[in-house]
From TrEMBL:
It holds the Pfam family PK_Tyr_Ser-Thr. Its main location: membrane. It comes from Rubroshorea leprosula. Keywords: ATP-binding, Kinase, Membrane, Nucleotide-binding, Serine/threonine-protein kinase, Signal, Transferase, Transmembrane, Transmembrane helix. GO terms for cellular component: plasma membrane. PROSITE patterns: PROTEIN_KINASE_DOM, PROTEIN_KINASE_ST. This is Protein kinase domain-containing protein. One of its GO terms (molecular function) is ATP binding. It is a single-pass type I membrane protein. It catalyses: L-seryl-[protein] + ATP = O-phospho-L-seryl-[protein] + ADP + H(+); L-threonyl-[protein] + ATP = O-phospho-L-threonyl-[protein] + ADP + H(+). It is found in: Membrane.
Length: 380
């Protein structure tokens, strides 16, 4: 108990309580968990409960007393000098409320390293569905376009709608989870890392992932909202081409998926690089529009890239046009089916003429479960 109290103070527990009490309407939504609660939830952090491990730490699956399934992130370490920044970030992230962003439910500060508690998202990452085929959820073009639109909406919310603008800084397909209905959920804001506040923006200090990082960021060392746009552009290309962001064996055109895509677009060679699972799609116009959008997102100049809110609106328009096209196609199919049905019925023009029926499928006597005699009798 003494150690727990010590860790709680050391990890900024008193500061967090103070911050939460000053936020109206959010105190109930944000919870400071005890170590006992999370040990019980994870069966003492049993190895069988591990969902994933990485450079930042380990994520465990747990079940709270109220029956909620959660993901508990146990970080490897936290710089003691940046505790205040960590607490500020927890407060900000617990206030984010968007259907396509993983919800941070709270944290535990009684352990040596703070633990973060998120809602549990059951169906894995977008990365897995792009690069490992899954029979349960085949990644059709329609599904890809929906996911892209949902992710754009989430990042646009962070940039433009959240109380303080937030940059994700690590947008990639493995940080996009899919829930029970295969809706996209943007995750991993690096909440265990430091944050920096300037005059207008709160930014999460995440270094990012090779293959997704904005080249302009390398040169200027300044991360902007357009850096998230670049990373999102790489995700769009992954959805279009079905390749990983870094080619380990390719030498021609470089090992970067982004540079390979840009080169192909400039050669007007999009069709030859598309993922085979979407190449045969009838939505050629939509594919082309999304490719052109991705091309603009990957501009070497941040100023030439669109804003996330513009990207979200454009993708929604493309989705709308595709749905409209599908509706028209469905109407045509129904109309054709009706024509086929009426063609089976040959009604004589004279009133006394007999009614004859073409008994080819699907209007055969067997399909109705009737004998030829019953059919003749019913017609008479």
């Amino acid at each position: 108990m003494k150690f727990r109290r010590q860790f709680f103070k050391q990890n900024g527990g008193l500061l967090l309580q103070q911050q939460l009490s000053s936020i109206e309407g959010n105190v109930e939504k944000t919870k400071i968990f005890s170590t006992k609660e999370l040990e019980r939830a994870t069966d003492n952090f049993n190895k069988n409960r591990i969902l994933g491990q990485g450079g930042q730490g380990t994520v465990y699956k747990g079940m709270l007393v109220d029956g909620r399934i959660v993901a508990i992130k146990k970080s490897k370490e936290l710089d003691k000098e940046k505790i205040k920044d960590f607490i500020n970030e927890v407060v900000i992230l617990t206030q984010i409320n968007h259907r396509n962003i993983v919800k941070l439910l709270g944290c535990c500060l009684e352990a040596e390293v703070p633990l973060l508690v998120y809602e549990f998202i059951p169906n894995g990452t977008l990365f897995q569905y792009i690069h490992d085929e899954n029979e349960d959820f085949p990644l059709s073009w329609e599904n890809r376009l929906t996911i892209a639109s949902e992710v754009a909406s989430a990042i646009s919310y962070l940039h433009s709608v959240a109380s303080i603008p937030i940059y994700h800084r690590d947008v990639k397909s493995s940080n996009i989870l899919l829930d029970e209905k295969y809706r996209a959920k943007v995750s991993d804001f690096g909440a265990s890392r430091s944050i920096a506040i300037d005059q207008t923006h709160l930014t999460t200090n995440v270094q990012g992932t090779f293959g997704y990082l904005d080249p302009e960021y390398y040169q200027s060392c300044q991360f902007t909202e357009k850096s998230d746009v670049y990373s999102f552009g790489v995700v769009l290309v992954e959805l279009l081409i079905g390749e990983k962001p870094i080619f380990l064996e390719r030498t021609e055109g470089g090992r970067s998926l982004a540079s390979h895509f840009i080169l192909s677009m400039e050669k007007n060679d999009l069709l030859n690089i598309l993922d085979a699972r979407v190449k045969d799609s009838s939505a050629h116009e939509e594919l082309k529009k999304v490719a052109e959008l991705a091309y603009r997102c990957l501009s070497l100049s941040g100023k030439k890239r669109p804003k996330m809110i513009e990207i979200a609106m454009e993708l929604e328009q493309i989705r709308f046009s595709q749905n409209k096209s599908n509706d028209q196609k469905n109407h045509e199919e129904i109309r054709n089916a009706r024509t086929e049905v009426t063609n089976h019925w040959d009604v004589a023009s004279s009133s006394g003429a007999a009614l004859s029926i073409d008994m080819e499928p699907p209007f055969s006597s067997e399909s109705w479960g009737l004998s030829e005699k019953q059919v003749s009798s019913n017609i008479k």
